[in-house]
Specification:
- By secondary structure, the protein is an alpha/beta fold.
- It folds into 2 domains: about 180 residues, Glycogen Phosphorylase B (Rossmann fold), CATH 3.40.50; about 150 residues, Rossmann fold (3-Layer(aba) Sandwich).
- About 45% of the residues lie in helices and about 15% in strands.
- α3 packs across α4 and α7 crosses α12.
- Uridine-diphosphate-N-acetylglucosamine (UD1) binds next to α1, α5 and α11.
Length: about 375
């Protein structure tokens, strides 16, 4: 019997930590054959190549080199470039991860060619349709044949949307597989000494959501309480390319009155070490809410909602909203919170990709 040919898709930074364990688990099974496609949504050395090296992800078989663009232009270009590839390679299954434009575009192209789609990290919902990622999640789940879910809320959301139970598999969190695997080597990173930071004596900040950073006044309002925090504890801020321009526009506003250290984006191991040793993490990222939950580091999420509610109930996450008063209160609450989670979310044990590969092998 010929092996099941799976075409795996990645495009943007958070996809890389998710695909790494899935590819590894598939590679161990002779019944599964893999092709890896990079759409090129993220292309900077520090946003892409570095992660492939650190996480030992094989070189992509194909790079679609789509680059940046508006939501529609980027999605359209991915659709256009993946279709001939799918026609040429004729995979048995297309596997997409997460909620970025590459996820929805490749899923859509595949399903229209009659190729079944598997979605890793299915079912998450923020119930906020102004987020591009929420639209990507809803559409991808609606066209997927296999839905691999990280937490019970995802199973419940899919049931409510009428997705047949047989398609849905609660498998755990592949991003945590990667964290578990690399935690020991990340501990050896010298990032703290490079940045002259004492363990537990600093906070980490990441921001890149369009709703938070695209408008300079919104961005400034969000930063106000963080600037205040920086007078007590230095704040390290690895800046996403999207956020760079907004930050430059504000340069000088708090000159000499803050200790927010804007640095280039970090690689996976350095960033994992930085989070692990931080007193507090402030973020609008989805994945970081999950990683801090496992690391037991307090996390303040600078959003009004989260599609990952288990990080609130089982983890260290506090939702701050985006108003200065709310952020100040959340910082106080998170700083006073217990140091470690009561119990990690079910199945976030480093074996989610194995469960996925088991299911794929039985197809
Ligand atoms: C994308 C995802 C988001 C994810 C984030 C992680 C969508 C809709 N959004 O957002 O869910 O959390 O990635 O980083 O898919 N840029 C560079 N170099 C790069 C990539 C981007 O300079 O390698 C700049 C470009 O100016 C680009 C902007 O960043 O216009 C935004 O990139 P884009 O891929 O459109 O979305 P992200 O904001 O990165």
């Amino acid at each position: 019997m010929s092996p099941l040919h799976i075409l795996h898709v990645v495009g943007a930074r958070p996809n890389f930590m998710k695909i790494a364990p899935v590819l590894e688990a598939c590679a161990r099974r002779p019944r599964l054959a893999s092709t890896l496609v990079h759409t090129g949504q993220h292309y900077d050395e520090k946003m892409s190549k570095l992660f492939f090296e650190e996480l030992g992800i094989p070189r992509p078989d194909v790079d679609l080199e789509v680059g940046s663009g508006s939501q529609a232009a980027q999605t359209a270009l991915i659709l256009q470039r993946i279709e001939p590839l799918l026609l040429d390679r004729r995979p048995d299954l297309v596997l997409v991860v997460g909620d970025v434009n590459s996820t929805v575009a490749c899923g859509l192209a595949a399903v229209k060619l009659g190729i079944p789609v598997a979605h890793v990290e299915a079912g998450l919902r923020s119930f906020d349709r102004t987020m591009p990622e929420e639209i990507n999640r809803i559409v991808t789940d609606a066209i997927s044949e296999l839905l691999f879910v990280t937490e019970q809320s995802g199973v419940d959301n899919l049931a409510r949307e009428g997705v047949p139970e047989a398609k849905v598999h609660l498998v755990g969190n592949v991003m945590i597989d990667t964290l578990v695997k690399h935690r020991a080597s990340a501990a050896k990173s010298d990032v703290l000494s490079r940045l002259a930071l004492p363990a537990r004596g600093f906070a980490v900040l990441t921001l890149h959501r369009p709703a938070n950073v695209d408008d300079p006044e919104t961005f400034a309002r969000l930063l106000e309480p963080i600037v205040e925090l920086s007078r007590e504890v230095p704040v390290v801020f690895p800046v996403h390319p999207r956020t760079r321009a907004a930050l430059d526009a504000l340069s000088g506003r708090w000159a000499g009155r803050m200790d927010v250290r804007a640095i280039e984006p970090l690689g996976y191991l350095d960033f994992l070490k930085l989070m692990s040793d931080a007193r507090l993490v402030l973020t609008d990222s989805g994945g970081i809410q999950e990683e801090t939950t496992i690391l037991g580091v307090p996390c303040v999420t600078l959003r009004d909602n989260t599609e990952r509610p288990i990080t609130l109930t089982h983890g260290t996450n506090v939702l701050a909203g985006t108003r200065p008063e709310g952020i100040r209160a959340a910082i106080a609450r998170a700083s006073a919170a217990r140091a470690a989670p009561a119990s990690p979310p079910p199945l976030w044990d480093g074996r989610a990709a194995e469960r996925i590969a088991d299911i794929l092998e039985r197809l």
